[in-house]
């Protein structure tokens, strides 16, 4: 046999020349998104899914920015770890989709798995061309418009020249907006400029710094640590809050290892990083070698961030500057495209070296709207601002800066880019700022709500939705009606005040029955009925009625008749005030849009900071947090099937949810007087919008939300027959689309719930929304 032929590789020769240039590649797209943090990733996907070609430029090797494995900060927003009164506040759209997918694949909170999810979401979009390790270098303008950007990939030694009619800046520091000459601010406004009473003084500082996180691991045997020479030498002397260090708190729990608030947080970032490394390795040396932490003997330092998590730098100016009052007063905006709910969260500029607390957090009584006019630039008409650089004061930025809020804004930017393309003429898209006109904004808000975005105070009025046009909507099984919840749950001792939230209509309040399983002694139990000043809030600040009951030692059955009226349709709070001598009965039954909360603490700000004092009532996470075992007379009928077409796919002042009656076929039926052609059906299931779904570090006991429909099908019910049009199994997401290969011509359509992700015996989940299109 002849030996295999060996091919000689080609040899490339180049003679010496005076100089060379990098290889250049020309790219064109409908929109160029600069920055691939969570905001840039979401903006790109949202645009791509709405028919826009996208070039996404990211200067890091992975997507996600502060959420990625390079930094490892959890994604949070309006839910704020469920530590505020913002019930059912988790962001919708792609933020919701990403967090639910992460829960399903990654309940342990591994940041590497989150990296794969974000990369997969982008790679699956044929309209996106992704360029990692590619840093924005320059921008060229044609008059006041951005004509192109130049970016360099250090791994491929390639210079990219990207031409697009629209640009979205999600770089974090506003690099593109800066190069394009857009107006910006850095630091804090004076209190009298906008009347913001929470604006900090110079002693507190005007910028938030950076943080670097670290992880440790127990190796099962003693591990020696020799600190690098640059490590901080005397932690107890240098760090005033050293007593707060514990080996049990790593990663995000040590967010207060923060530095840079007195420096230039753009240009001094490398210096800030070195100082943070100095602190981190000094703290670890303190753990390992001070002798104060014997529990650290077997611990090794597994990971230290190489990229600091940056909080604040430039804020770019739009037609509207969001202010403290917009957040605290929950002001209405006609151009609302997103929402927030994180606290006003300011940090001392001295960070880890400060003697005062690492942050000052004041919450509003509910969520607030974010207007589109904070995301566009009057001076650069084809530029939109994404991420933390939107138009806001330093104080308002303290709330809007967090990732889930920024991601919700990015939903709006991607959909806006698509609408600009749609409304453009002669191949030139409409400038984003022109979406502020009344008609264009109404269209943008409609498109956003179709996409799954939540806009507080708005409901989807969709003239093309055939379910809204249907002659009737009915449930074959009947609707869930709350008359009683069985006392089969664990006893709940009232070590804190407990409240059952109940969605009541305006008018007479029913009579409630509860069971005191045991009172260890003769005592008194005070029961209050509370509501909120604003119907859409969940701050139980208004006491509508109060009764005190004398309890005997042992079990007691209470009938509670307040004989009052609820002044408005809202969630009311049946509050059992703290008495640790009393245990009440709970139930294992869980129902969509029904929950209990406990009095966690009181927010008591100084009188001069412009923030409200109120009580914070928060839920206990599953598997705890049971509903009260109770009876209601007359029964509460708040889960009617017609809720699926009221335009609001989450609880607000109502459940906005259909829950089928227990023990029957879970089928809803939509009927039309005339034969109707349907090619797409959109369904919105309950994935518990109250759950924060932190993306990393904090683990979750569930892989899928118990209320969420796991298996369902779409049926043609014309003329009394059943024809299966679509079936899906193993679902764990909120918003699902059934796209039919062949449009169905029908007079009746059905959706049947076949299985939930939770225990069908104890969980009654439902459907928030159904829409259908020709």
UniProtKB/TrEMBL annotation:
InterPro entries hit by this protein: FAD/NAD-bd_sf (IPR036188), HdrA-like (IPR039650)
Pfam families with a match to the protein in the record: FAD_oxidored
- Keywords recorded for this protein, A-Z: 4Fe-4S, Iron, Iron-sulfur, Metal-binding, Oxidoreductase
Name of the protein described by the UniProt record = Uncharacterized protein
High-level lineage? Eukaryota, Fungi, Dikarya, Ascomycota, Pezizomycotina
């Amino acid at each position: 046999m002849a030996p295999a032929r060996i091919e000689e590789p080609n040899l490339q020769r180049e003679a010496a020349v005076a100089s060379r240039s990098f290889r250049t590649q020309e790219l064109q797209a409908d929109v160029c998104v600069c920055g691939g943090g969570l905001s840039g990733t979401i903006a790109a996907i949202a645009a791509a899914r709405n028919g826009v070609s996208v070039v996404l430029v990211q200067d890091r090797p992975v997507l996600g920015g502060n959420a990625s494995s390079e930094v490892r900060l959890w994604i949070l927003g309006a839910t704020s770890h469920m530590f505020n009164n913002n019930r059912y506040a988790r962001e919708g759209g792609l933020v919701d989709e990403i967090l639910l997918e992460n829960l399903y694949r990654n309940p342990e909170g591994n940041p590497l798995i989150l990296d794969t999810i974000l990369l997969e979401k982008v790679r699956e979009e044929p309209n996106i061309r992704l360029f990692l390790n590619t840093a924005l270098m320059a921008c060229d303008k044609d008059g006041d418009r951005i004509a192109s950007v130049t970016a360099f990939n250090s791994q491929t030694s390639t210079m990219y020249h990207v031409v697009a009619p629209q640009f979205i800046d999600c770089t974090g520091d506003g690099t593109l907006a800066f190069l394009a000459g857009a107006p910006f601010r850095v630091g804090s406004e004076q209190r009298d400029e906008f009347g913001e009473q929470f604006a900090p003084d110079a002693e507190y500082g005007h910028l938030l710094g950076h943080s670097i996180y670290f992880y440790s691991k127990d190796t099962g045997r003693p591990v020696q640590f020799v600190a690098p020479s640059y490590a901080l030498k005397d932690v107890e002397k240098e760090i005033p809050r050293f007593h707060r260090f514990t080996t049990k708190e790593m990663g995000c729990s040590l967010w207060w290892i923060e530095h840079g608030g007195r420096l230039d947080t753009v240009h001094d970032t490398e210096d800030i990083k070195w100082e943070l490394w100095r602190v981190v390795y000094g703290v670890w040396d303190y753990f390992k070698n001070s002798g104060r932490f014997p529990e650290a003997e077997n611990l090794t330092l597994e990971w230290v961030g190489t990229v600091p998590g940056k909080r604040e730098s430039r804020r770019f100016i739009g037609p509207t500057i969001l202010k403290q009052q917009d957040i605290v007063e929950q002001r209405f905006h006609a151009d609302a495209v997103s929402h927030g709910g994180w606290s006003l969260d300011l940090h001392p500029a001295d960070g880890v070296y400060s003697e005062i607390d690492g942050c000052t957090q004041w919450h509003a009584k509910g969520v607030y709207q974010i207007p589109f006019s904070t995301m566009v630039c009057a001076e650069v008409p084809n530029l939109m601002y994404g991420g933390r650089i939107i138009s806001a004061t330093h104080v308002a930025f303290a709330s809007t800066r967090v990732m889930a809020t920024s991601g919700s804004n990015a939903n709006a930017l991607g959909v806006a880019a698509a609408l600009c393309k749609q409304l453009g003429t002669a191949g030139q898209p409409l400038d984003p700022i022109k979406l502020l006109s009344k008609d264009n904004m109404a269209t943008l808000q409609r498109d956003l709500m179709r996409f799954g975005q939540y806009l507080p105070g708005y409901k989807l009025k969709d003239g093309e939705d055939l379910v809204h046009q249907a002659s009737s909507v009915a449930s074959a099984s009947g609707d869930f009606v709350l008359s009683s919840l069985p006392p089969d749950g664990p006893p709940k001792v009232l070590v804190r005040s407990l409240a059952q939230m109940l969605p009541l209509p305006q008018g007479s309040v029913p009579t409630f029955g509860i069971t005191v399983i045991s009172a260890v002694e003769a005592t008194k139990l005070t029961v209050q009925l509370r509501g909120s000043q604003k119907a859409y809030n969940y701050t139980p600040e208004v006491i509508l009625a109060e009764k005190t009951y004398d309890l005997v030692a042992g079990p007691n059955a209470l009938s509670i008749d307040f004989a009052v009226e609820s002044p408005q349709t809202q969630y009311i709070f049946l509050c059992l005030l703290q008495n640790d001598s009393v245990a009440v009965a709970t139930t294992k039954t869980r129902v969509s849009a029904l929950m209990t909360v406990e009095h966690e603490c009181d927010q008591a700000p100084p009188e001069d900071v412009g923030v409200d004092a109120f009580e914070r009532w928060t839920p206990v996470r599953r598997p705890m947090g049971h509903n009260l075992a109770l009876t209601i007379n007359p029964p509460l009928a708040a889960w009617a099937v017609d809720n699926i077409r009221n335009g609001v796919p989450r609880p607000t002042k109502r459940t906005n949810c259909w829950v089928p009656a227990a023990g029957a076929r879970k089928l809803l039926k939509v009927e039309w007087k005339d034969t109707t052609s349907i090619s797409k059906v959109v369904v919105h299931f309950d994935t518990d919008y109250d759950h924060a779904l932190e993306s990393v570090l904090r683990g979750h006991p569930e892989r899928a939300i118990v209320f969420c429909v796991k298996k369902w099908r779409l049926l043609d019910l014309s003329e009394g027959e059943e024809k299966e049009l679509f079936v899906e199994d193993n679902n764990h997401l909120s918003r699902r689309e059934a796209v039919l290969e062949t449009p169905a011509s029908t007079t009746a359509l059905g959706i049947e719930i076949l299985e939930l992700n939770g225990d069908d015996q104890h969980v009654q989940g439902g459907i928030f929304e159904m829409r259908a299109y020709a």
